[in-house]
Write a structure and sequence with these properties.
Blueprint: H1 5-33, H2 38-58, H3 68-86, H4 88-92, H5 99-110, H6 126-154, H7 174-203, H8 207-218, H9 237-250, H10 254-261, H11 265-269, H12 272-295, H13 308-326, H14 341-350, H15 366-384, E1 393-394, E2 397-398, H16 401-427, H17 432-444, H18 464-478, H19 482-485
Antiparallel strand pairs: 1-2
Helix pairs in contact: 1-2, 1-3, 1-6, 3-5, 3-6, 5-6, 5-18, 6-7, 6-8, 7-8, 7-9, 7-10, 8-9, 9-13, 12-13, 15-16, 16-17, 16-18, 17-18
Pfam family, one: TrkH
Protein name: TrkH family potassium uptake protein
Family: Belongs to the TrkH potassium transport family.
Length: 496
């Protein structure tokens, strides 16, 4: 089977064109603020628009059909094209002149990881800060469409489980499903972003800070305009509570938001993954708040007098960091690695949880953990009743065996790649906590890690090869492993 290379390059050209279009927002911001980066951003935008338009023009006579092989290539190389073109504003403005650092910051943005190499974020031009946040937002919307409309059709990582729940026709072809799904989810995504921007502005942020943090929150990215991240607003709890709310929504399957807006609230409440996702957030937050209150020191604001202020602060910081890690947003209000050894290990484990499938969060996802746990319980029953046929049920539906095997395979591959990732970082001379933390954070698209990569530090101290390796882990984790790793197999490229 020959590859339909024209449709591949046509879609990649479209992505470049869209990327250049989004750069125009950063260009306008730069011009308004007069930050000195206008020319560099303008050249980057024109370069992306020219390359994208040229690719689309050359491949205008293409077969409008995308099969599985083309789908894998488009997804992986699409993210690479976005990252390569997306680093141009950094390079052309000398904000990040080094190519390795520029690519790391960019792919961290598009994969919504939020890991940074920047030591002084507040010194960056406003146009570059907005572009940095926009890379999150673009990647976040791409992930929603990818998870809801594309991966189920490619059979990736058990995503078929909620394919039938996505709004729109259950078409076998790729294009109608993407188009119909994207229209609805785009409106929800934009609506949430606008709503959070307005609320943050009312709560006390500047409009510029509000829009940047909204772009980063809804994408579960974590890039901030401040060196201290959300800890900059520790004396304004309302701002942090607003971010908590929208991080929770961003970590929820966006299809459920669609159902909620359609008035089908019962469908949301009956969703098994959502119930466990909410339960984990509440239970873990209470536990962390209690440990922090009795065992650790947290910043107490002027918002409430003591001792009520200490309790409120413990609850807020505990809730904030639990949701930030579970949803892989990466915002921080405090250095959670310095609270207690118990919480350090606990937060490390949370890096493997992830939010809901069909959300912008990274990680393994709650849905997969539930399926694996249920299958393990059923294995005990099957051991006792060898002739019994006991189906695995999820959200009151029977799950096919091939999906269960797919999810188990995904989990094994995820853990194997994490171990290899940590070994590579360890071979580069990083200490144990830094190596395992960096690998878990990069693969799970979390952002802050442990050791020298803790929430108060960044990834700038990594050797260049370590940064490129983390880029690979971020991309593989963001695109559900199989999509990227299958391209590395000789079998994929054989003609069939």
């Amino acid at each position: 089977m020959r590859l339909n290379s024209r449709i591949i390059f046509h879609i990649l050209g479209l992505l470049l064109l869209c990327n250049g279009g989004f750069m125009l927002f950063a260009l306008l911001t730069s011009a308004i603020y007069g930050d000195g980066a206008t020319l560099g951003i303008g050249v980057a935008a024109l370069t992306a628009i020219f390359l994208g338009s040229s690719a689309m023009f050359i491949t205008r006579n293409h077969k409008k059909e995308v099969k599985r092989k083309e789908g894998y290539i488009i997804v992986t190389f699409g993210w690479l094209c976005l990252s390569i073109s997306g680093m141009l504003p950094y390079v052309f403005t000398d904000a990040i002149p080094d190519v390795t650092n520029a690519f790391f910051e960019t792919i961290s943005g598009y994969t919504t990881t939020g890991a940074s190499i920047l030591d002084d974020i507040e010194s960056l031009p406003e146009g570059i800060l907005l572009w940095r946040s926009l890379t999150h937002w673009i990647g976040g919307m791409g992930i929603i469409v990818l998870a809801i409309a594309i991966l189920p059709l490619l059979g990736i990582g058990g995503m078929q489980l909620f394919a039938a729940e996505a709004p729109g026709p259950n078409a076998d072809k790729l294009h109608p499903r993407i188009t119909d799904t994207a229209k609805r989810l785009w409106l929800i995504y934009v609506g949430y972003t606008v709503a959070e921007t307005v609320l943050l502005k009312v709560a006390g942020m500047t409009f510029f800070d509000a829009i940047n943090h909204s772009l980063a929150t809804l994408s579960t990215g974590g890039f901030s305009t401040k060196n201290a991240s959300l800890a900059y607003w520790n004396d304004q709890p309302l701002i942090q509570y607003i971010v908590i709310l929208f991080m929770f929504l961003a970590g929820t399957n966006f299809v459920l938001s669609y159902f909620a807006f359609k008035g089908k609230v019962q469908k949301v409440l009956m969703d098994e993954e959502f119930r466990f996702y909410a339960l984990f957030v509440v239970a873990f937050s209470i536990m962390v708040a209690l440990v922090v209150y009795f065992k650790a020191d947290v910043p107490v604001t002027e918002y409430h007098p003591m001792p009520y202020g200490a309790m409120e602060s413990s609850i807020r910081h505990g809730l904030f960091q639990i949701i930030a890690v579970i949803t892989t947003t990466g915002f921080v209000t405090a250095d959670f690695t310095a609270w207690t050894p118990f919480l350090t290990i606990f937060f490390f484990g949370l890096m493997f949880l992830g939010g809901s499938a069909g959300s912008t969060s990274g990680g393994i996802k709650v849905m997969r953990h539930l399926i694996i746990f249920k299958n393990a319980i059923l294995e005990f029953k099957r051991t006792l009743h060898t002739n019994a046929v006991i189906p695995l049920r999820y959200s009151n539906k029977t799950v096919k065996e091939d999906i269960v095997y797919n999810i188990i395979g995904f989990f094994v591959l995820y853990m194997l790649l994490f171990i290899i990732g940590a070994l590579v970082l360890g071979a580069l001379g990083l200490d144990f906590m830094t190596a395992v933390g960096g690998a878990a954070s990069s693969l799970g698209n979390v952002g802050p890690a442990f050791g020298s990569l803790n929430p108060l530090s960044n990834f700038n101290g990594l050797p260049d090869f370590g940064k490129w390796w983390c880029c690979f882990l971020m991309l593989a984790g963001r695109l559900e492993l199989f999509t990227v790793l299958i391209l590395l197999t000789p079998y994929f490229w054989r003609r069939t």
